[in-house]
Design a protein that fits this description.
globular; 6-stranded mixed β-sheet; 25% strand
């Protein structure tokens, strides 16, 4: 007799991270219940050092493309690039309505317009709003972070309730006066939370993250003592800190100038929606800087991560067309390095000192505080939400592991903790937790207007070219007559300087001539001939000077 299945037992909730685990950035999590899918965040990440020429990396959404008819909407926790940066690329493939707070969707809309992505529906929500997407009830919960409008999200379906923390900290004195909504989080915990997905960025730091208010006196003292221009580099999306800096600048008689594409765009959007307040007579254009004395100028710019094309970097290296660093300038870098960017920032700081500027950064003064929860705030989140299952997210593997240990130290059963892998499906009900299949995932590389057309082979070639250079061997052959018409010519790029190494170039020509003399050019197999030229030249060059350039034979059939 077959066993009877309980028809009232709910289906499993499926959770899969397409990014944001075992890495800082590219946050994107899929929640799937039966035929309904909601996606939380849609972020990008900075390319790694070996991704030469790549602009950014976005999640592989092949899994969503295959199920795009089931996607009910995208929910955004906040407007940082690691949570919204991939939106214009992914919405082209998997369109669905967008939900987020006012500033978050204003920043997303800016990206959509830049990339000309049409016909995307956006719904602005307020904290504590609930929306229904298929079988999911989605509740937005205000949290403090380094950008306005940050939220945690509670997703409730027949299987249970899941809380996604987003990026947060527990700031009891936030600049905007809106503290993290601990009351709603506690209420959810009392009702019963099946799982918590909580960020892990600062899990290695004990104690509590410093309040944003703490850096206010630092800025006031710096502005009071500054004699020349003040140039502040920071994340354009940190509107609250931007307001704090600008208020101090105006208090000490300065006019505000925005430099850098993202700084100009974000500040304009923030002013339009009422998140940033600047008196109109205090705003000046970059072309008007020379009309005011240095002690009346405050420049807000991009480049806090040492990005080569950002405003501060170009100013430091005298490459900015409107503004160069002077000895009287005070430069404030109000940010902490994203992992991997430390050496880029160090180079810019060193160059600023060479220009004679006074440079103030995190190691010297309190000009930055983190927007992420440290250990005590993470413990508070766990204590309030009281989840049955825990999935640490938003961090490198060591951070996820340490967050799992923190949860275990608070009494959670280790069997109820899953350290996720990108693309690994996690299935759960109130009474079960298991791993499902591995879905296609990874990083899609964006290079200029190309999306996904740069892969491992192209990157390997770029690395090869950057390390060893290129040799082009060009010749013209009359295949019918079987004779060499011209060449071989040797063209070197990034290998050796031809004018100072004519003997090596001539010996390489002789190697190729020897191959041509030994080969039958009458009806020759060009592929075999090119391969032999590459192999013999590689061998000769390595024996001669221990280098391994890329060799590209070009044969013109005349």
């Amino acid at each position: 007799m077959s066993q009877r299945v309980n028809a009232t037992e709910p289906s499993k909730l499926r959770i899969v991270s397409l990014g944001g685990v075992d890495e800082i950035g590219k946050n994107m999590t899929v929640f799937e219940y039966e035929d309904d899918i909601v996606v939380v965040d849609c972020g990008s990440i900075f390319p790694k050092e070996d991704m030469l020429g790549v602009d950014l990396v976005i999640p592989d959404v092949s899994y969503l493309v295959a199920k795009k008819k089931n996607v009910r909407g995208y929910l955004f926790t906040h407007g940082h690039e690691d949570h919204i940066g991939a939106t214009p690329y992914i919405l082209r493939q998997v369109p669905a309505p967008l939900y987020g707070t006012k500033l978050t969707l204003a920043l997303v809309d800016l990206k959509m317009k830049e990339h000309r992505v049409p016909n995307i529906t956006m719904h602005v929500v307020q904290p504590r709003d609930e929306i229904q997407l298929g079988k999911f009830t989605c509740k937005f919960i205000h949290v403090s972070h380094s950008i306005a409008g940050a939220c945690a999200i509670a997703l409730t379906c027949p299987a249970g309730t899941v809380v996604v923390s987003g990026d947060f900290k527990v700031d009891y004195t936030p600049i905007d006066g809106q503290v993290t909504d601990l009351q709603t989080l506690a209420s959810l915990g009392e009702k019963g939370v099946m799982a918590l997905l909580c960020e892990s960025t600062n899990v290695e730091r004990p104690g509590q993250t410093m309040s944003e208010m703490k850096i206010g006196p630092t800025f006031e003292n710096l502005f009071r003592d500054a004699k020349g221009r003040v140039i502040v580099a920071m994340f354009a999306s940190n509107i609250h800190r931007m307001q704090m800096v600008i208020d101090n600048g105006i208090r000490y008689g300065r006019r505000v100038c925005f430099i850098g594409r993202s700084m100009v765009n974000v500040s304009r959007v923030a002013m339009q929606i009422g998140e940033l307040h600047i008196p109109e007579d205090c705003l000046i254009d970059v072309d008007s800087l020379d009309q005011y004395p240095d002690e009346e100028i405050l420049v807000m710019t991009t480049g806090s991560q040492g990005e080569p094309m950002a405003g501060l970097t170009r100013m430091a290296y005298a490459e900015h067309r409107k503004l160069q660093i002077r000895q009287s300038d005070m430069v404030l870098i109000s940010a902490t390095p994203i992992p991997g960017n430390e050496k880029f920032i160090s180079r810019v700081i060193n160059q600023l000192y060479r220009c004679g500027a006074q440079v103030v950064y995190e190691a010297l003064a309190e000009v930055h505080v983190s927007g992420h929860a440290c250990q005590e705030e993470l413990k508070l989140m766990h204590a309030l939400v009281q989840p049955k299952y825990f999935i640490p997210v938003h961090g490198e593997y060591r951070m996820l592991w340490q967050h799992a240990e923190l949860a275990e130290s608070m009494g959670m059963n280790r069997k109820n903790i899953v350290i996720p892998e990108i693309g690994q499906v996690i299935e759960m009900t109130e009474n079960s937790l298991s791993l499902g299949e591995q879905v296609p995932t990874g990083g899609v590389l964006v290079d200029g207007l190309g999306i996904g057309d740069v892969g491992n082979v192209v990157l390997r070639d770029r690395k090869h070219l950057s390390q060893d250079g290129l040799i082009i061997v060009a010749m013209a052959i009359d295949r019918d007559q079987g004779v060499l018409v011209s060449g071989p010519d040797i063209i070197s790029r990034g290998f050796i300087y031809v004018r100072e190494n004519e003997d090596i170039i001539e010996s390489m020509r002789e190697v190729v001539r020897g191959i041509l003399r030994e080969s039958s050019l009458d009806g020759a197999d060009w592929v075999a001939l090119k391969n032999r030229i590459k192999d013999d030249l590689h061998r000769y060059i390595y024996e001669k000077i221990k280098r391994n350039p890329m060799i590209l034979p070009i044969i013109l059939d005349v």
